[in-house]
Amino acid sequence: MEHKLTGIFNWRLFLSTLGVVFISEMGDKTQITTMLLAGAKPAYVLWVALGSAMALICTSFIEVIIGSQVIARYIKPETIKLLSGITFLILGTLLVFGLMGNVELNL
Fold first, then answer.
1. pLDDT (tens digit per residue) in 7-33
2. What is the pTM of this model?
């Protein structure tokens, strides 16, 4: 029980996670998409910002739950790295060739 309480106030882990995720997200396709959405609808930048922030919060929460409760129990870290790399390559290829990510906004 004491270990869990000290984990709650782990500022070092919080700050390192904040820094790593912030740097990773800058220039990420998600951020580029958000910039493009804001550029396409400049009158609605507040809604784009709120929608983007809410999506990142929700996806991060889901990732933490799945990662800590499911993936870390059954899959080795090396396997996760390999699968992540393959997934990013597939998604990048689909985006480059326009087979995915074509979104039409009709606001």
1. 577 888 888 888 888 887 777 788 888
2. 0.54
Please say whether the beta carbons of 61 and 55 come within 8 A: no
Q: How far is CA 12 from CA 7, 43, 54, in A?
A: 10, 39, 25
- 18-23 — which CB contacts under 8 Å span 24+ positions? 21/60
- Of how many residues is the chain composed? 107
CA distance 39 to 42: 5
Rounded to an integer, what distance in angstroms lies between the CA atom of residue 63 and that of residue 21?
13
User: How many Å is the maximal CA-CA distance in the chain?
Assistant: 53
Read off the pLDDT of each residue in 23-50 and give the average, rounded to a whole number: 87
- Evaluate whether 41 touches 105 at the Cβ level (below 8 Å): yes
